[in-house]
Amino acid sequence: MSLRILAGSFDELLSGTARKVEADGYSIAVVRIGDDVYAIGDTCSHADVSLSEGEVICETKEIECWKHGSAFSLETGQPLTLPATKPVPVYDAVVVDGMIEVHIS
Question: pTM for this structure?
Answer without folding.
Answer: 0.94
